[in-house]
Design brief:
The complex is a heterodimer of chains A (267) and B (288). Chain A is 45% helix and 20% strand. Chain A contains 12 helices and 9 strands. In chain A, β2 and β3 form a beta hairpin. Chain B has a single domain, classed as Alpha-Beta Complex (2-enoyl-CoA Hydratase, Chain A, domain 1), CATH 3.90.226.10. By secondary structure, chain B is α/β, with parallel strands linked by helices. Chain B has 10 helices and 10 strands. Classes of the chains: A alpha/beta (267), B alpha/beta (288). At the A-B interface, α5, α6, α7, α8 and α12 of A face β4, α5, α6, α7 and α8 of B.
C-alpha cells in the first residue's frame, strides 16, 4: 500500500480528535459565537473567541466532523455550507477590527456539494473568503488537522502560516474523484493518492506549509501545548509587522506557487 | 424573467469595428454541425453570427483569441505574457500527452490568453479562458498569466474584463493547482483595493475552483445565456442528495435567480454592455 494512501486512511480515521477538541485544549476562557447573520448557523464550523494564552486573545475557526453519529450528522460530517464560510468570514472581519489573530483548524473532505449549497452560492462564499483573507489586516494561522479537501479547505487556509499534522493530507481533488476521472475506477484510490502528492511531507517540499506537527494523541494535552507554543511564536513575529508588511508577505507567500517554463523573455 | 437585459445602453461600439473580418480571413471555413439542432453551416457564417447557431440559437463555445478579437476594437488587441508553458513536474500519468495534444489541436500554449485591448475606445486588460485546452483547467501557467495581467492592470490603472470557462482544478498539477486560486485572488484583491474595476463574464462552462475563486470575485458579474455555472459537478450533487436536479440547475438563469449574477447578456449586446460599463467607471473612480 502506498504511503499516501496510508496517510489518507489515518487522516480520515473516526478516532482522530476533531476540530473542537484542539480548540478546547488550546484556548482558554473561550466562547463559541454562532451564525453568519445572513442565513443561518452551520454547525460544521465551530468558531468563536478566547485566549491563546494570558493576554493573547484570538479568534478560532474550526471545521468539526463530529464524534458520534448524532453529532456527525448535526455537523454534516465536517462539510461546510455557504453559511459556514460566511460565518467564518464574519468572525475573521470581527477579528480584524479588534486586531486579534485568527487561528483556523481545518479538517474537511470538502465543501458540501448539495443542491441548496449551490443555490446559496457555495462557490461565491469560498471565493469571497479567499479574496478577503488576502487583504485581512491581522495574522492568520491555519492548521490542517485531518483532511484538507480542496477549495473547501483553502477557504480557511489562505493564511500567513499553514501547518499540517504529520498524518494530515491536503489535496486539490479527492483521490476517489481523481481515480474516477483518470481511470474511470474510483477504486484506484491508492494510485491516485500517490500521483497527487497529498502528504504533509509533500506539502513541505512544495513550500505549501511552514511545518509539520508531530502527532501524539495519547498525550493530547502535551501535543496541544506545543501547538500553542508555535502559534504564540508566530503571533509574536506576525504582530511585529506593519499591515503593509503583513499583507505583502502573505501576497508573496502565495505568489511564488507555480512550475512552468518560459520560452522567450517577456518585456 | 430570466433575460433582464434593458435597452437603455448607448451604442458605444457602433462606430468601432472589430477584428472579425481579419479573424474570418485567417480561419478555415470548416463545415460544422450544431449539437442542438443538427443544423449544418460553415465556420465563417457562425463567426458572422457571434458564434450562435443561425438555426436554433445555441451558443457555441469560443476560443480565447477568437473571443477577444470578436469583442475588441479593430487592431487594439495586444497579447502579453505569452511565453509560459506548463510542465509535468509531478510526472503525472498522461499529463505530458494531454498537454501535447491540446497544444496541437488549439495552437495555444495553455488555456488562457491575456493582454490589453480597447472597447468602444476605452482601454482595458483582459483574460480569456479557452475551454478547448484541457477544459481550461487551472494549472501554474493559467494562474501565472492571470495574476500577471492583474498586476499589470493595477500598475497601469486599467480595468480587467475576464471571460471565465473552466472544468476546475488541473489535478495533474496537484496542490499547486489549488494554490493558483489563492495566487490569483491576491492579485484581484490588490487590483480592487487600488480602486480598479473587474468585470467577469461567465461563459459555458464555469465550474469548480474557478467558480470558487476569481469567477465570483468581479465587481460586476455578467453571464452568457444558458451557460453552466456552479461549484460542485451536477453528478456529484445528484449522488450526494440522491435526487434528480431540475434542468436549469446551475444555469446562468438559475444563478441570476439566486442572486449570484448581475445580468445575463446575450452575445449581440455584450460589446455595448461592456463598453458602457467601462464608460460608467471612467468617471469618478477611486483613481483619478
Amino acid at each position: 500500500m502506498s504511503n499516501a494512501h496510508e496517510k489518507l486512511k489515518i487522516a480520515r480515521a473516526s478516532t482522530r480528535p476533531t476540530g473542537s477538541a484542539y480548540v478546547d485544549q488550546i484556548f482558554k476562557s473561550h466562547m463559541e459565537l454562532h451564525g453568519d447573520r445572513r442565513f443561518g448557523d452551520d454547525a460544521a464550523i465551530y468558531s468563536g473567541v478566547g485566549f491563546i494564552d494570558e493576554g493573547i486573545p484570538a479568534t478560532f475557526i474550526a471545521i468539526d466532523k463530529g464524534t458520534d453519529l448524532q453529532s456527525r450528522m448535526a455537523r454534516n460530517f465536517g462539510c461546510p455550507k455557504p453559511e459556514g464560510y460566511r460565518k467564518a468570514l464574519r468572525l475573521m472581519k470581527q477579528a480584524e477590527k479588534f486586531r486579534r489573530p485568527i487561528i483556523c483548524f481545518i479538517d474537511t473532505l470538502g465543501a458540501y456539494p448539495g443542491a441548496e449549497a449551490e443555490q446559496r452560492g457555495q462557490g461565491q462564499a469560498i471565493a469571497e473568503n479567499i479574496l478577503e483573507m488576502m487583504g485581512m489586516k491581522t495574522p492568520i494561522i491555519s492548521i490542517i488537522t485531518g483532511e484538507g479537501g480542496s477549495g473547501g479547505a483553502l477557504g480557511l487556509a489562505t493564511g500567513d502560516r499553514v501547518y499540517m499534522l504529520e498524518n494530515a493530507v491536503y489535496s486539490v481533488i479527492s483521490p476517489e474523484g481523481c481515480a474516477s476521472i483518470l481511470w474511470k475506477d474510483s477504486g484506484k484510490v491508492a494510485d491516485a493518492a500517490e500521483c497527487l502528492k497529498i502528504t504533509a511531507k509533500d506539502m513541505r517540499e512544495f513550500k505549501v506549509i511552514e511545518g509539520i506537527i508531530t502527532e501524539d494523541f495519547d498525550h493530547f494535552d502535551k501535543m496541544c501545548n506545543s501547538i500553542r507554543h508555535q502559534i504564540k511564536k508566530d503571533i509574536a513575529a506576525l504582530s511585529a509587522m506593519t499591515d503593509e508588511q503583513l499583507l505583502a508577505a502573505r501576497y508573496d507567500r502565495f505568489r511564488q506557487f507555480g512550475y512552468f517554463t518560459r520560452t522567450v523573455d517577456d518585456e | 424573467m430570466a433575460n433582464v437585459f434593458t435597452s437603455f445602453i448607448k451604442n458605444l461600439t457602433g462606430q468601432q469595428p472589430t477584428d472579425i473580418d481579419s479573424l474570418i480571413k485567417h480561419t478555415e471555413n470548416t463545415q460544422l454541425v450544431c449539437k442542438g439542432c443538427n443544423g449544418e453551416f460553415g465556420k465563417h457564417q457562425l463567426l458572422r453570427n457571434n458564434m450562435i447557431c443561425p438555426k436554433c440559437g445555441k451558443y457555441f463555445r469560443m476560443g480565447g483569441k477568437e473571443r477577444i478579437k470578436w469583442l475588441a476594437d479593430k487592431k487594439s488587441c495586444e497579447f502579453m505574457f505569452d511565453d509560459f508553458e506548463s510542465r509535468d513536474f509531478l510526472d503525472f500519468p498522461g499529463y505530458s500527452e494531454k498537454l501535447e495534444k491540446s497544444r496541437r489541436t488549439t495552437g495555444e500554449k495553455d488555456a488562457v490568453v491575456v493582454g490589453t485591448a480597447k472597447l468602444g475606445g476605452s482601454p482595458f486588460a483582459f483574460f480569456v479562458m479557452d475551454s478547448r485546452f484541457m477544459m481550461a483547467s487551472m494549472g501554474s501557467v493559467l494562474g501565472e498569466k492571470i495574476t500577471s495581467i492583474f498586476e499589470y492592470a493595477e500598475k497601469n490603472n486599467l480595468p480587467v474584463i475576464g471571460f471565465t470557462a473552466s472544468g476546475g482544478a488541473r489535478m495533474q498539477e496537484g496542490i499547486i493547482s489549488l494554490m493558483q486560486m489563492a495566487k490569483v485572488s491576491g492579485a484581484v484583491k490588490r487590483h480592487s483595493t487600488a480602486g480598479n474595476l473587474y468585470i467577469t463574464v461567465l461563459t459555458d462552462p464555469t465550474t469548480g475552483g474557478c467558480t470558487a475563486s476569481f469567477a465570483m470575485q468581479g465587481d460586476i458579474i455578467i453571464a452568457e445565456p444558458k451557460a453552466l455555472v456552479g461549484f460542485a459537478g451536477r453528478r456529484v450533487v445528484e449522488q450526494t442528495t440522491k435526487s434528480k436536479l431540475p434542468d436549469n440547475f446551475q444555469s446562468a438563469e438559475f444563478l441570476l435567480e439566486c442572486g449570484f449574477a448581475d445580468s445575463i447578456v446575450p452575445r449581440e449586446k455584450l460589446r455595448d454592455t461592456l463598453a458602457n460599463l467601462l464608460e460608467i467607471h471612467k468617471a469618478g473612480g477611486a483613481k483619478a
